[in-house]
Amino acid sequence: MPRKVKLILNPIADMGNAWRVANDLRPIVAEYGQADWSGTVYPTHAVELAHQAGLDGYELVVAVGGDGTVHEVINGLMQVPENQRPILGIVPVGSGNDFAHAAGVPLEPVEALTHALKSEPSIIDMGRLADEHGRVEYFDNTLGIGFDTVVTLRSHKIPFLRGFLMYLVAVIQTIILDFDPAPMHIETEKTTWDEHSLMLVLCNGPREGGGFLVAPEARLDDGILHYASIGDIGRLMMFRLVPEVMKGTHGRFACVRMGDCHKMTLKSEKPLFIHLDGEIYTGFDSNVRQPSIEILPAALKVVR
């Protein structure tokens, strides 16, 4: 039986290319006959649209956009009671599409929508972040603290590049211009350590930034978070690590700590720069020093 479907389109995704893609998708939607469109018009609008779609009885909510659009949609869906929570579908139209890659979703938009409308879902995990100020947000793919958040901020200022090359240029800029480790105390249910942390990434999926393989062993449905932490190293060593992270071989270096956990708590002497799925949670005006991160196993149904 056909599902009641809501498509949530971010028209400015992929530097505005999503408009053209949406036009290509219209014949498929018309043929399906049970789908409604909504477009986002301001930041976090997709959160509201996805939440309302769940309350309105939609069974499948399809995010048409990049990783940021999917991030907002899952935050809306996670606000819906579990017994009423819609299935997530994905039409990847973004710069990185890291979550779609991890989920095994077709990367060609027409094929992806056809797949979302006709295939059965499976269940995946979600990450959850809470800070000392009572703010809570979910992530589907990666949470980054420190270096890669600054990379994300810098990538937003490179309009003439797209995809992996955009993130690579931002990485090089960040190594040269922003290199300030934060003294941290870190605890998981398995271990505790103190370090001056340049970068800490917690992963539900294996990669971020359009192709940086931060946690090669991470899977969306394994019930755990994988992490990679880089301590206080010099710029030359960070340049050395960049190609290793691209290949997923950085764990062999002594300055890199890798592991897994169900929950992690942090205490930092400095305010932390944090991104979730490439969306900025705290930027240069951050007042967050004590975040708590956990995995929520089997939290969301996704067509993959």
Descriptive tags:
304 residues, alpha+beta, Rossmann fold, Tumour Suppressor Smad4, 2 domains, six-stranded antiparallel β-sheet, 8 helices, 16 strands
Task: Give a structural overview.
By secondary structure, the chain is α+β, with helices and mostly antiparallel strands. The chain folds into 2 domains: 5-119, Probable inorganic polyphosphate/atp-NAD kinase, domain 1 (Rossmann fold); 130-298, Sandwich (Tumour Suppressor Smad4). It is built from 8 helices and 16 strands. The protein has helices at 18-32, 45-55, 67-77, 98-103, 109-118, 147-155, 163-177, 235-247; strands spanning 5-9, 35-39, 60-65, 87-92, 121-130, 136-139, 142-146, 182-188, 192-197, 199-203, 225-230, 256-261, 263-268, 274-276, 279-282, 292-303. The chain has a 6-stranded antiparallel beta sheet, covered by helices on one side. The chain has a 6-stranded antiparallel beta sheet with strand order 12-11-10-7-14-15. Helix 2 crosses helix 3, helix 6 (147-155) packs across helix 7 (163-177) and helix 7 (163-177) packs antiparallel against helix 8 (235-247). The model has no long low-confidence stretch (mean pLDDT 93).
Summarize the structure.
It is built from 8 helices and 16 strands. The protein has 304 residues and is α+β, with helices and mostly antiparallel strands.
Counted up, domains total 2
Helix and strand content put the structural class at alpha+beta
- Largest sheet entry: 6 strands, antiparallel
N-to-C order of helices and strands: EHEHEHEHHEEEHHEEEEHEEEEE
Taking the alpha carbons of the first and last residues, their distance comes to 19 Å
Q: What would you say the CATH architecture of the largest domain is?
A: Sandwich
- In the predicted model, the low-confidence regions spanning at least 5 consecutive residues are none
Rg of Cα set: 19 Å
What general outline do the C-alpha atoms trace? globular
Query: Which fold name corresponds to the CATH topology of the largest domain?
Result: Tumour Suppressor Smad4
Name the average pLDDT.
93
The number of distinct helices, counting runs of at least 4 residues, comes to: 8
